């Protein structure tokens, strides 16, 4: 039998030559050691590179903060519109009932006001002798309501039921709060009583995201759902669209009526500035075949409850494949939680918080900003300030509203957009400088996030800056 069977050919190949001299042996061993060292170095480099890649590929986390109605969710929608287009298109139609709901709510707000005024005119007429001469209203000529107004009220009556139906479907995210038990603007104050946990849970089961999921689920039935139940949902949708389409002319008539406009003026109600305003788009929306446009979706309003986590992978651009996690928090005082880049609204200097009418919105913003800047937990976090709703600020100033009437320190400065935004920015910058535990840069953008085109450019800059910060941290880790 041949003994070669036991010999490993590889061992044979790398075995030192049999007639090796001591010098040759030393040279060989030195070369082998050098080769091992280089190989280990390469392995180490590969390991480090992989590690760095892994850290860089960690999701970028972005927390959207700001008062209620300051435009956080609208900003998130802009991110989705630009960077996750496919998903956006899949979701776009699910916003149809939300736009219907917003439009119907606009109309019902007018009807409520009209009802109240007409009823109180009746009551005043009945007690004319005891009228209050000193009241401001009595100095103005009474509004003249005609048969037309009575008929409009009657014909638009079914929209009340439509609103109730939609409210039931969308859940509490469709209801705007008018009171709060929380009296602080600052979410990070020491000793602050933390609100009930359920308000803060991620993916809270009653926020706008789940309302949307529910609507989407209704359109794409689960396998266990019968065709009948799907048809029912579709019927309800179409029925609502038909009722609204049937009211189109009356909706336009009530919105364009000069007496109603005067009533809104006297009541200091500016529906154009309210969340989810669609009365100027009735021709398009009050149609049975209505499909929301991109802009409609950005402007549609559902309140955020708790914290809504929204994940997406960049589909295109330099960072395609990078995961981003956006946390969209509810902005009412009772739902303010752990907050990051801070979004705010500057058109609000003369407005009060919806949930607490005693509090000026700008004052509340300053307090919030201070609380975020001084928070030790966020000391090394990049903060980006969006001074949002600049379009509404511009319109307000053009109407002649004077800033100094609500903000005395504004003094005799020019009452125009650039002076106002410079003034507000300066104030936010000083707070940042004074209250940040560690010095940090001040990043600020003047925005109108319902303008998707200009917001795309802003978000490009923001993306760049956030990623740079993200990569710098990855290097430090
Ligand atoms: N005109 C105008 N409207 C805006 C702007 N940004 C947001 N809106 C509208 O304001 C309303 C409220 O915006 P949201 O994004 O829902 O506000 P939010 O900060 O998420 O509010 P919460 O969820 O209650 O905390 C929506 O109808 C938006 O379309 C803006 O720059 N200009
Ligand atoms: Mg929101």
UniProtKB/TrEMBL annotation:
It comes from the Eukaryota. Residues 1-53, 119-142 are annotated as: Disordered. It comes from Dendrothele bispora (strain CBS 962.96). The keyword Nucleotide-binding applies. Keywords: GTP-binding, Magnesium, Metal-binding, Nucleotide-binding, Transducer. One of its GO terms (molecular function) is G-protein beta/gamma-subunit complex binding. Residues 22-35 have a biased composition (Basic and acidic residues). GTP binds at residues 388-391. This is G-alpha-domain-containing protein. Mg(2+) binds at residue 304. GO terms for cellular component: cytoplasm; heterotrimeric G-protein complex. GO terms for biological process: adenylate cyclase-modulating G protein-coupled receptor signaling pathway.
């Amino acid at each position: 039998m041949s003994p070669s069977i036991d010999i490993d050919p590889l061992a044979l190949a790398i075995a030192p030559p049999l007639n090796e001299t001591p010098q040759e042996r030393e040279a060989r061993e030195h070369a082998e050691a050098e080769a091992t060292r280089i190989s280990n170095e390469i392995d180490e480099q590969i390991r480090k590179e992989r590690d760095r890649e892994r850290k860089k590929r960690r999701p970028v986390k972005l927390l959207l903060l700001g008062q209620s109605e300051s435009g956080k969710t609208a900003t998130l929608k802009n991110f989705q519109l630009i960077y996750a287009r496919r998903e956006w298109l899949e979701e776009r139609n699910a916003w149809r009932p939300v736009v219907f709901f917003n439009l119907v709510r606009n109309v019902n707000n007018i009807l409520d006001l009209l009802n109240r005024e007409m009823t109180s005119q009746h009551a005043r007429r009945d007690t004319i002798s005891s009228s209050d001469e000193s009241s401001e209203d009595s100095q103005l000529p009474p509004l003249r309501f005609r048969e037309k107004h009575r008929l409009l009220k009657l014909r638009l009556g079914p929209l009340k039921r439509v609103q109730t139906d939609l409210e039931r479907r969308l859940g509490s995210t469709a209801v705007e709060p008018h009171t709060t038990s929380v009296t602080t603007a600052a979410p990070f104050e020491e000793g602050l009583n933390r609100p009930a946990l359920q308000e803060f849970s991620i993916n809270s089961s009653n926020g706008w995201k789940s309302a949307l999921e529910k609507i989407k689920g209704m359109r794409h039935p689960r396998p266990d759902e019968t065709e009948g139940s799907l048809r029912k949902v579709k019927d309800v949708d179409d029925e609502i669209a038909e009722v609204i389409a049937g009211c189109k002319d009356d909706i336009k008539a009530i919105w364009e009526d000069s007496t109603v406009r005067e009533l809104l003026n006297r009541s200091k109600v500016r529906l154009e500035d309210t969340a989810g305003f669609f009365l100027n788009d009735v021709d398009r929306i009050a149609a049975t075949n209505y499909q929301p446009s991109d802009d409609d979706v950005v402007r549609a309003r559902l309140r955020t409850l708790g914290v809504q986590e929204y994940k997406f992978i960049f589909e295109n651009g330099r960072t395609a494949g990078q995961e981003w996690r956006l946390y969209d928090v509810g902005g009412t005082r009772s739902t303010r939680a752990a907050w990051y880049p801070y979004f705010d609204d500057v058109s609000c200097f003369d407005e009060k918080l919806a949930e607490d009418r005693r509090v000026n919105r700008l004052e509340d913003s300053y307090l919030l900003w201070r609380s975020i800047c001084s928070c030790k937990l966020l000391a090394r976090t990049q903060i980006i300030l969006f001074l949002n709703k600049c379009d509404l600020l511009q319109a307000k100033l053009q109407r002649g509203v004077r800033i100094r009437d609500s903000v005395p320190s504004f003094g005799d400065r020019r009452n125009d957009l650039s002076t106002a935004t410079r003034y507000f920015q300066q104030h936010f910058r000083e707070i940042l400088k004074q209250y940040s535990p560690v010095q940090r840069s001040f990043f600020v953008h003047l925005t109108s996030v319902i303008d998707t085109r200009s917001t795309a450019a802003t978000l490009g800059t923001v993306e760049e800056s956030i990623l740079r910060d993200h990569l710098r941290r990855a290097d430090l880790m």
